[in-house]
From TrEMBL:
Keywords: Methyltransferase, Transferase. GO terms for molecular function: methyltransferase activity. GO terms for biological process: methylation. Residues 42-140 form the Methyltransferase domain. It comes from the Bacteria. InterPro entries: Methyltransf_25, SAM-dependent_MTases_sf. This is Class I SAM-dependent methyltransferase.
């Protein structure tokens, strides 16, 4: 797993306008949330700065939010307090989840925001999926979103610079992604993310972090979900789309 400790303070510049408000982020999953029972127990692992977890708690769900980054967990707790939303926060990576929660605890587990590629290779990815599967009740669902890595790899190593300023907390920033695409799928890839904030006086503050990732094909993910006892119910995978969502139920 990798950090996000440096990016935690500026992570809102990486979240789209449509998902910045907790209620709107949760509403983007209305179709799967409709499958949940009243007072559902939900886990948001890789919770980031907590927009989804806080939005789910606002709908009356019993929510736990976890992340491998201590700073992300701190920011989620702060957002929960700001919105007076009861969210339990725990610092844990995927493989540590069974150390904190009993098997068959949750009705739904979210793993969103393009996080699974930080698991180290196929072995780490299967271990992460196995941990999430263990925590689901029978019939419970994993909701996972992912970059379309087949598309990412065709573009090769590159520098992506946002063509617009993003405004958050009264400050503008330019977001830059630097991609290091390895020769082979199974090799470690890198994404460096930089947020260059510009204040009213024209001063620039840059926060950046180099992140490791191990990409995967959609067919590999589908097979690995099956391997850990999850059956794919829904998929929005499109090889030409930037991202997709998979909903898989525990059999």
């Amino acid at each position: 797993m990798t950090g996000y400790n440096a990016l935690a303070e500026v992570y809102e510049w990486l979240i789209s306008d449509a998902k910045l408000a907790p209620a709107e982020f949760a509403a983007s999953f209305d179709d799967v949330l409709s499958l949940l029972p009243p007072n559902a127990h939900v886990l948001d692992c890789s919770c980031g700065t907590g927009q989804l977890a806080v939005g789910l708690a606002g709908l009356g769900m019993q929510v736990v939010a976890t992340d491998a980054s201590e700073e992300m967990v701190r920011r989620t707790a702060e957002l929960s307090e700001e919105f007076r939303a009861p969210v339990r926060t725990v610092r844990a990576d995927w493989q540590e989840l069974p150390d904190h929660f009993d098997d068959d605890t949750f009705d739904m587990v979210f793993c969103v925001g393009n996080s699974l590629h930080h698991a180290v290779g196929a072995r780490g990815r299967v271990a992460a999926l196995e941990s999430m599967s263990r925590l689901l009740r029978r019939g419970g669902r994993l909701v996972l979103t992912s970059r379309t890595w087949e598309l990412v790899r065709t573009r090769g190593s590159r520098l992506d610079i946002s063509d617009r300023l993003v405004r958050r907390n009264g400050r503008n920033a330019v977001v830059v992604y630097r991609w290091e695409i390895a020769s082979h799928w199974e090799e470690e890839h890198h994404i460096e993310i930089a947020v260059a904030q510009v204040d009213a006086a024209g001063s620039v503050l840059v926060r950046s972090e180099l992140l490791s990732c191990w990409p995967y094909r959609y067919d590999e993910l589908a097979a690995e979900l099956h391997q850990v006892g999850l059956r794919t119910e829904r998929s929005t995978y499109n090889p030409e789309a930037e991202n997709y969502m998979v909903v898989a139920s525990k059999v």
